[in-house]
Design goal:
With 570 residues, this protein is an alpha/beta fold. The chain contains 21 helices and 19 strands. Helix content is 43%, strand content 17%. Helix 3 crosses helix 5, helix 14 crosses helix 15 and helix 15 crosses helix 17.
Length: 570
């Protein structure tokens, strides 16, 4: 029976072996059949038998190698044609063949000789890998070679890329019909032909066949010809998972290959590669309530973030839900939250995920917020929405495993649930509004990943939920997510109609366990303030807060202006 091996995109031996010398060392722990020499005497017998075999082989005259190959093929045919009870052992000596009856001791010696030959080949391969690694280490001084980073190319516009490609000698006529990723591929290929070296970073996506690709966040993890191939041996060696941010040196495609391949891994999730091999899986981390507050108050005195800082504070690991009718300023509120976090907490890795949004909003978010903006617009398929969301979630989980603080701003979780409703297999159980009973499991898994981790790191998710859209499905989705978060902000359409921003309903907004985020003095004054404004309606409350905060420089001055004894504000 003939076994056909499925070919991977970059199916080569040296591509897998060139990563690291330790790969050979990992395979030396077992023999070809899973056994190992039992003791030193047996090993000594094996070595002596091998030495005698080497002496016989050295006496073979010219052309003996071809005779040996022919005799091996004849032996295989004889073994297949000979009955089991009448097998004969074929022994080669000096290019001739002689036969004899099978002997148990001779068979054992032959098997041990094969084991010893395999071990010798492994040792030679290990030494060659070590020498190659030393050469790679000695050649790391690449200051004289021109360097190029793929991420710098992806941030460039089409005109700049075409000009750069023209400098490398790519004909302008060939680039007219090319997409951006294809032009980048041609630039990289020409750069390597000129003797340059290339570095790249991206988020790893492992395919079912075992190999993976580095997807670019600038392309919203969309597959393209400039993706970097990673072999299965590299994935196993460094304990890589889907979502890992990998940075390293790459090489150009060899003959018969279509993608650039990773040559050497420099960092994994911005840490040394050793950290990835000893990390704790995300599901085994201990979740806690948020106990460290994000300071959203900025120097420009933004009113909306100052109000949030007092009445609904956000902590590291918060699971926040912004309940918003249409045209209530949810996008502007998300932008201000993002800018406040990047200004006051530069150590946080911020990701803005836009699902089923308009293209112009994506461009505005990219130019307004200094963060990683990942989008899948409304003209994309539902499968694309799901793929983008899962890549963002896996990337955030990997960063939390490396004890980093990550914030995801999702707009919106309602449209993400709609996309899952179109892609999941039909279970036969349909809720009101046409929502499949299994469709909300993965959106809940996405939203439920937000947590503060006891071992270090946190994942904060601030998602928007749409209401009052006229769709029964949106109402069902909101009811399913209502109560799953530990912080909620409600936007009011009446306030936005009167152009009062932020259009927040203070009475309906709040944070669970806010005593862990606020000081005792702040907590007492906020409770008094809520008692004062409780008889008022939302419009009066927001007008009062905006007026008082404009008169105070910051929240500290605003709280000092309160008279706690009479429960009124001066």
């Amino acid at each position: 029976m003939v076994t056909i091996k499925k070919r991977r995109p970059n199916d080569q031996l040296d591509g897998e072996a060139e990563q690291t010398p330790n790969q050979a060392q990992l395979d030396l722990s077992t023999e070809p059949n899973g056994s190992s020499p039992k003791n030193a005497e047996e090993s000594q017998e094996i070595i002596s038998a091998t030495d005698s075999k080497k002496k016989r082989t050295e006496k073979v005259p010219e052309g003996g190698e071809e005779q040996d190959r022919e005799s091996e093929s004849r032996e295989k045919k004889d073994d297949r044609n000979t009955p089991q009870g009448d097998k004969r052992v074929v022994v080669r000596s000096k290019g001739r063949r002689r036969t004899g009856s099978p002997d148990s001791s001779g068979t054992a010696t032959t098997r041990e000789n094969n084991k010893n030959e395999y071990r010798i080949k492994k040792n030679k391969r290990e030494s060659s890998y070590e020498s190659g690694h030393q050469n790679a280490q000695s050649s790391q001084d690449t200051g004289n070679k021109p360097k190029l980073t793929i991420n710098e190319l992806t941030r460039m516009g089409m005109h700049a890329l075409r000009d750069l490609a023209t400098q490398y000698g790519v004909p302008h006529e060939d680039m007219v019909a090319m997409k951006k990723q294809e032009v980048i591929f041609q630039i990289l290929k020409a750069h390597t032909e000129h003797g340059g070296i290339i570095f790249a970073s991206g988020s790893l996506e492992i395919l079912p066949d075992g190999y993976g690709f580095l997807r670019s966040p600038q392309n919203s993890y969309l597959p393209g010809p400039d993706d970097i191939y990673i072999s299965p041996s590299q994935i196993r060696l460094f304990n890589l998972k889907t979502g890992d941010t990998v940075y390293g040196q790459i090489r150009s495609p060899k003959e018969g290959e279509r993608f650039f391949a990773l040559l050497r891994v420099e960092t994994v999730n911005f840490d040394d590669v050793v950290e990835a091999q000893s990390r704790i899986p995300f599901d085994n981390l201990t979740p806690l309530y948020p106990d460290e507050k994000f300071d959203l108050e900025t120097a420009n005195g933004e009113i909306s973030t100052r109000i949030m800082n007092l009445f609904c504070p956000i902590g590291k690991g918060q699971r926040a839900l912004i309940v918003a009718p249409p045209r209530t300023g949810k996008t502007m509120l998300m932008q201000r939250i993002a800018n406040s976090i990047t200004a006051n907490h530069p150590e946080v890795y911020l990701i803005v995920l836009l699902i089923d949004e308009r293209p112009e909003e994506v461009t505005d978010m990219e130019r307004t917020v200094n963060a990683e903006v990942i989008s899948s617009t409304f003209d994309e398929q539902a499968t694309r929405h799901v793929q983008v969301a899962e890549m963002v979630l896996e990337k955030a989980r990997r960063l939390v495993e490396h004890k980093r603080d990550v914030v995801i701003l999702l707009d919106s979780i309602t449209r993400l649930a709609r996309a899952y409703n179109q892609t999941v297999p039909t279970s036969g159980k349909v809720l009101s509004g046409g929502v499949d009973s299994n469709a909300l499991h993965k959106p809940k898994r996405f939203f439920g990943a937000a947590r503060n981790v006891e071992e270090g790191g946190s994942l904060t998710i601030i998602a928007t939920a749409l209401i009052e859209t006229g769709s029964r499905m949106d109402e069902v989705i909101f009811e399913e997510f209502k109560g799953t978060g530990n912080m909620e902000i409600n936007l009011d359409r009446k306030l936005s109609d009167r152009r009062l921003y932020p259009a927040m309903s203070i009475k309906k907004s709040g944070t669970r366990k806010e005593e862990l985020l606020l000081t005792e003095e702040e907590l007492q004054k906020i409770w008094v303030l809520r008692k004062v404004i409780n008889p008022m309606d939302d419009t009066e409350i927001m007008e009062l807060l905006i007026d008082r905060m404009k008169k105070s420089k910051n929240n500290e001055a605003f709280l000092k202006s309160m008279n706690t004894g009479s429960a009124t504000m001066d």
